Amino acid sequence: MARVRLPAGAFSKMDEKIENKGEQHTNAVLKKHPEAKKKFNFNYDKHYGKLFLIPVILMLFSVGYLFYFYSQTGEFIIKDVSLSGGTTITVFGNFSDTEIQSLESSLMAQYDDISFRRLTESTSGKSSTFVIESQEGSEKITASIEEILGIKLTQQNSSIEFSDSALGESFYRQLITSLFISFVLMSIVIFILFRSFVPSMAVIFAAFSDIVMPLALIDYLGIKLSAAGIAAFLMLIGYSVDTDILLTTRALKKQEGTINERIYGAFKTGIFMNVTALAAVLPAFFIVTGLPDSFRQIFFILALGLVADIINTWLTNASIIKWYCDRKGIK
Amino acid sequence: MKISWRVWVLTFVLALSLVSILNISLASNFLVGALVLSIPFTLTFSKSRTTKVIIMILTVIALILIIFFSFHKGAIITSISSDSVYFTDGLRKGMIITSVNKNTVTNVEDYIAQINLIDFQDYTKIEFQTNQGNFLVLANQTPNIVVSNVPKTNLKTGLDLGGGARAVLKPINTTLSQNDMNDLVSVTSSRLNAFGISDVSVRGVSDLEGNKFLMVEVAGMTRDDLKEVVGQQGKFEAKIGNETSFVKGEKDITFVCRGDATCAGIESLGQDSSGAYVSKFKFSVSLSQEAAQRQARITQNLTLDPTDSQSLSKKLDLYVDDKLVESLSIGVGLKGSDTTQIQISGSGKGETQQEADDDARNSMKKLQTVLITGSLPYKLEIVKLDSSSPVLGKDFTKNIIILGLVVFSIVSLFIFIRYRKIKTTLAVILTMFSEAVITLGIASLLAWNLDAPSIAGIIAGIGTGVNDQIVIIAESVSEESSTLKQRIKRAFFIIIGAFFTIFAAMIPLFWAGIGMLQGFAFTTIIGITAGILITRPAFTEIIRRIEE
Fold first, then answer.
1. Contact at 8 Å (CB) between B46 and B54?
2. Concatenated DSSP letters for A56-116?
3. Which chain A residues are within 8 Å of B394, Cβ to Cβ?
4. What whole-number percentage of chain A has pLDDT above 90?
5. How far apart are CA B358 and CA A8, in angstroms?
6. How confident is the model at residue B194 (pLDDT cuts 50, 70, 90)?
7. H helix or E strand, kind and range, residue B406
8. Euclidean distance between the first and the last CA atom of chain A, given in angstroms as a whole number
């Protein structure tokens, strides 16, 4: 951050130079929107440093929260049973509301770490589905449920998953290692693509923020992360950098237009990419219910990441690229 | 109109993928492939626009009709007991039964209805017509065959969607060499086969931390049975008092009768005093001369049971993995006898006679399995045990199809609103559709088990594909003075960059966590690779044509 702020005083001169050049330049895109150009050029040159502050504050806040969370819980995330070990039982059938409520309260009384959720409501005799999670072994929980509901749990009415706690912990360690490897591999690809330090670091920093911000929010919301959820973060590393690559490529490799026009052009394309991608992942979370939790979680995390990516590409990365181009005299 | 070779490649791959996905007859497959390939021909040779559109619409309708009407009808045999008369007379797993006693069978319900019509009181002749010929079976019991409707596609579903049970096991206190692992896999497979399960996948898996595990996945088995059959070390010992009478292995046991009604079977005993139904299983075992003499020596010293004059004072106790599973009374006649033929029995209970019989049969199968198959040199611990309901899987598949349609519509709508061009929108739809079909085609070709993470990967792959397409469209419609070729080149720089970052990001998932999430990486990578090699070049060509 210090590096970015340091040359701030130098901007004013450069800005003048850029504006002069910009006046002479006739670019077809901006011809169409003369008023947009003036406003955009003027504001952006003057204020992009301030725009950069928004993600920096969000980032500081997120990192701060994550460390606070760590100090409180000893972990950076809340693990679900796929990562901590335990049992997940999904039961479905024609149960009355009272039956389900009594099951919930009896289980709560018997086990202190039980989590009970309903996926579909049992309205007018329609079948209902509910999910029970606990760190206990599957035999114990299964027996309790069978006793309370008075039915036998078979593959016709339930799915049962059990992981031993050592295996869960090992999954978690491996997924975190994978996340780290993914990030390093992605960074290498970015360095090979752009072959210059500041633009590459800008993309990598944006990708890092794309992970940290959703993670902080998920902790804040108290969402339990599953193994599939961590896989979604890996996906996010790959998924979120395409707009950054677009921006950096347009800014550095395109010859026409001023840097502001090129950033604006990339923004117009990129924001549409972000919005379309969001539209593609949100239905899995909101419209189509009745999907397994771990499946919905993948798309929820991708959606959060894409929102974070809008901030990080167009405020963080764009500001750094703009500053870099100004400093290097790329117009 | 001249069609670019890139579009030809796309059409060709699309045709192949469809053929690989659809489970229809060879002739229908051929027709489907030909029809898909006819589309670019139509575009090349028809002159007027109206003819083009009409022929295209007709082709698509014909395709849908052909696919719809050429699915196989009948009931496919998914499992058949190899010791049944039906097996001996030629019926095998994978055959499609199309008629029973000359009455057409189009689905499972038909099959069950037809079988229920048959009177099995006496030996009856049953005529099966299958896709692999006709079979005549003379039987006095209902076929112990499991059938299901013929699947419409060649796609394999993972356990979480198709239903089944999975166990992951780890040896206690030892690490396995590759040889140990191979032994473990073969003993476990033969054990499951001896238990009568054929649709099973047993393999060794390792993870990023170098741990080795045995993973067993079966479709038609309950979780408890799976746990018992694969979780046991499989040691067996028969003891009288504290003395070992015989253990398993050819040195002591020369033959175990199973699947032969003359020396192994179930006897229904009706209700006991508490009202529960009881059954008894019996099967004979041949001992070696040595073991028989050992048995004679031990029984020689036994006295009569004071409460039951027909039995000896001590029982023959059967231990599996040092756990007592059955305790058999020894008849008076066996005192000091060195007979090599002994009978092992046990009981089953249930709320109905059928349940009791099944329970007894299950116990018998487990005991036979232990006796027949080898034991493991170490104890295994079950670290993961999952069972998934096929019913939930069916719901999931239904929801996924809805989700696919919703995503397709929303993305298309967005593209149309942004670019206001019907042709561009159609090109995007075609590309999304192609990527989904090609990914599924490759998955079915490689017999990949599509589980929930795989499906998520397909959707995520299509999502990144749409982003790439937007980059291509944006560069194509740009009003810069640079040539279209230069701009397309720049678009491809971005696309290839994005490809490699996703590729790099997903690769570690292949090894992490015993590969439970590798489906996610697999389908994403297939999707984006198909994108960059096949659909993206074709899409660029189509967009270039539209823009010019």
1. no
2. HHHHHHHHHHHHHHHHHHSSSSEE-HHHH-EEEEEEEE---HHHHHHHHHHHHHH-TT-EE
3. none
4. 42
5. 82
6. confident
7. helix B390-419
8. 23
Asked whether the predicted pLDDT for residue A37 surpasses 70, the reply is no
d(CA B87, CA B101): 18
Residues of A in contact with B506 (CB under 8 A): 182, 234-235, 238
β-strand pairing of B156-157 with B449-450: parallel
Q: What is the pLDDT of residues A244-281, one digit of tens each?
A: 999 999 898 766 788 888 899 899 999 999 999 998 88
Angle (CA) A19-A204-A188 rounded to 5° is 120
Provide mean pLDDT across the span A297-307: 93
Q: Which residue among A92, A238, A298 places its CB closest to the CB of B501?
A: A238
Judgement on whether residues A91 and A73 belong to the same structural domain of the protein: no
Distance from CA of A7 to the nearest CA of B (A): 30
Q: Domains (ranges, CATH) in chain B?
A: 75-149 (2.30.42.10), 164-233+382-388 (3.30.70.3400), 237-372 (no CATH), 389-547 (1.20.1640.10)
> Which of A28, A235, A276 is closest, CB to CB, to B505?
A235
Domain that holds residue A62: 2-78+167-328
Are the beta carbons of A270 and A281 closer than 8 angstroms? no
CB-based contact, B205 to chain A, within 8 Å: no
Interface membership of B429 toward A (CB under 8 Å) = no
User: Which among A167, A241, A288 has the least Cβ separation from residue B399?
Assistant: A288
Same domain, A39 and A69: yes
Largest CA distance in chain A: 82
Helices (H), B46-138: 49-69, 85-88, 108-117
Confidence class for position B466, pLDDT limits 50, 70, 90: very high
Per-residue exposure over B156-191, b if at least 16 CB sit within 10 Å of its own CB, e if not:
bbbbbbbbbbbbbbbbeeeebeeebbeebbebbbeb
User: Within an 8 Å CB–CB cutoff, is residue B417 touching chain A?
Assistant: no
Is A208 found in the same domain as A69?
yes
Residue B152 predicted with pLDDT over 90? no
Distance CA B161, CA B390 (A): 7
**Max CA pair span of chain B:** 109
Mean pLDDT is lowest, of A47-51, A120-124, A249-253, for A120-124
Interface check A120 vs B, CB under 8 A: no
Q: Residues B163-172: pLDDT tens digits?
A: 888 999 988 8
Look at residues B221, B106, B91 and name the one whose alpha carbon lies nearest to residue B144.
Answer: B91
Kindly state the average pLDDT of the residues B140-155: 83
Three-state SS at A255: coil
Q: Which of A207, A263, A276 is nearest to A236 (CA)?
A: A207
Q: Is the dihedral of CA A178, A184, A185, A187 positive or negative?
A: positive
Chain A nearest-CA distance from B383, in A, is 5
User: How far is residue A101's CA from residue A128's CA, in Å, rounded to a whole number?
Assistant: 12
B415 or A13, greater pLDDT: B415
Identify the CATH number of the domain in which residue A144 sits: 3.30.70.1120
Is the Cβ of A208 closer than 8 Å to some Cβ of chain B?
no
Q: What is the mean pLDDT of chain B?
A: 86
Name the minimum distance, in Å, from the CA of A220 to any CA of chain B.
25
Mark which of A115, A137, A162 sits at the end of a domain.
A162
For residue A269, the number of C-alpha atoms closer than 13 Å in the C-beta half-sphere is: 30
Q: Which residues neighbour B65 within 8 Å (Cβ) at sequence distance 6 or greater?
A: none
Determine phi and psi for A159, rounding to 5 degrees. Answer: -120, 135
Inter-residue contact B120 to B141 (CB < 8 Å): yes
Q: A228 with A284: CB under 8 angstroms?
A: no
Count how many residues are written for chain A.
Answer: 331
Question: Is the confidence at residue B403, as pLDDT, over 70?
Answer: yes
